[in-house]
Design goal:
This protein is mainly alpha-helical.
């Protein structure tokens, strides 16, 4: 049953008119360039914003960035850091971005798009981030392959 549900969700994502952007950070070689965890967070987010802006530029359409809202005090500080990083990224640009406004924050329990993003992030983490052994099951890998052509993978090393 669970395998069928995973496959069904992956098939749904494959049918949606969307692109998926995944950012993975390898911190091992970044310590000499990145002074703090906040700097690393900003670097990864700016790289993701650059990729999203490039995609929006190609389509010449405005975009809206929705983020999964955190629920505790520590995590809300991270949300604030993300918003500050967005503002810094936007102000450093020569031209306005294609984003319609500041990122929106919402709880994934209420937004299907955020739930699908969580599904993709979870799948990607199981398949590629756990360690070099790749813990993902064959079923999860097969489900991922249903929408893999939509994924733009960005690695920061």
């Amino acid at each position: 049953m669970c395998v069928q549900l995973i496959t069904d969700i992956a098939a749904l994502i494959a049918q949606l008119p969307c692109r998926i952007f995944v950012t993975r950070v390898d911190k091992r070689d970044l310590s000499e360039y990145v002074a703090s965890e906040a700097d690393l967070y900003r670097l990864a987010f700016w790289r993701l914003l650059n990729e999203l802006e490039l995609a929006l530029t190609e389509t010449d359409l405005p975009g809206l960035l929705m983020m999964d809202m955190r629920s505790d005090l520590h995590s809300s500080v991270q949300d604030r850091r993300l918003l500050d990083a967005y503002r810094e990224w936007e102000s450093a640009r020569r031209e306005p971005s294609h984003f319609a406004e500041l990122p929106w924050f919402g709880f994934s329990a209420f937004y299907a798009g955020l739930q699908l993003a969580d599904f993709v992030a979870y799948s990607f983490d199981l398949l590629y981030n756990r360690d070099e052994r790749r813990h993902g099951s064959d079923e999860l890998r097969q489900a991922y392959l249903l929408y893999a052509d939509k994924v733009r993978f960005v690695e920061i090393r």
